[in-house]
Amino acid sequence: MQTLRTPDERFDDVPDFPYAPRYCEIPDGDGGTLRVAWVQDGPEDADPVLMLHGEPSWSYLYRKMMPILAAAGHRVICPDLVGFGRSDKPTRREDHSYARHVEWMRTVAFDVLDLRDVTLVGQDWGGLIGLRLAAEHPERFARLVVANTGLPNGEQPLADVWWRFREAITTAPELNIGWFVQGGCRQQLSDEVRAGYDAPFPEDAHCAGPRAMPGLVPTSPDDPAAAANKAAWARLSVSPTPMLVAFSDGDPITGPMAAIFQREMRGAQGIEHPTIHGAGHFLQEDAGEELAHHIVEFLRR
């Protein structure tokens, strides 16, 4: 598997992100290895809060939330998915698959970091990957937080705006990642913040991950990931693991999933689920502090 690595100096001027990266090497599933990056904050001996980002962002998305959770006494861990952030970037779209991304994050979280009593926070692809981990390794997880995400199995119709996003990001001659993130926010991002989202992708050759991910979402029952996601949903729907459903009121892509999670998941019953007002798809960017405080309260309860 051919990979690229974003030069470290690309991250020198990323604003409001003082966390030093940590790295590990994991098998790439093709006979080689991948370097995966993560950042963390809070006490090393505290139960972990594993926060997984989605497409086309990186751990920078959680910069407003990390200090709040750490100050509340939690160990916060934010990996960069393979192909994103400071993690290595396979150069071919076909090197990316849903199953590989689940396995890559499983390896980091369990084989490398040996995380237990995990609270998952998953948004966008962070939920698609994290919920598979929670379903397939329930003994590792103590709580789940789903925020503007889903677990599609190819049987549900996807929003028109998502199909337009998929077409745009897979066919654009060049990708301006910062503007794609801006398109999922209600608030106007500064030039510096947009540049922070651009930082991992100095050239289009680094963008196979962002270009590949929309095509990995199951859109028909015969998709390679459909059966595994359907099985994961079945396991999670009867799981007693507490689940906080914290969606924004302005996400046209995943918004309808909030009511479905609240209704269908056993772990979501009897919990007061917040709605984050005035936020778009990337609610960590629009209202990260508010979301973090809801998670702190969920953990306290």
Automatic annotation (TrEMBL):
<dbReference type="Pfam" id="PF00561">
    <property type="entry name" value="Abhydrolase_1"/>
</dbReference>
<protein>
    <submittedName>
        <fullName>Haloalkane dehalogenase</fullName>
    </submittedName>
</protein>
<keyword id="KW-0378">Hydrolase</keyword>
<dbReference type="InterPro" id="IPR000639">
    <property type="entry name" value="Epox_hydrolase-like"/>
</dbReference>
<dbReference type="GO" id="GO:0004301">
    <property type="term" value="F:epoxide hydrolase activity"/>
</dbReference>
<dbReference type="InterPro" id="IPR029058">
    <property type="entry name" value="AB_hydrolase_fold"/>
</dbReference>
<dbReference type="InterPro" id="IPR051340">
    <property type="entry name" value="Haloalkane_dehalogenase"/>
</dbReference>
<feature type="domain" description="AB hydrolase-1">
    <location>
        <begin position="48"/>
        <end position="163"/>
    </location>
</feature>
<dbReference type="InterPro" id="IPR000073">
    <property type="entry name" value="AB_hydrolase_1"/>
</dbReference>
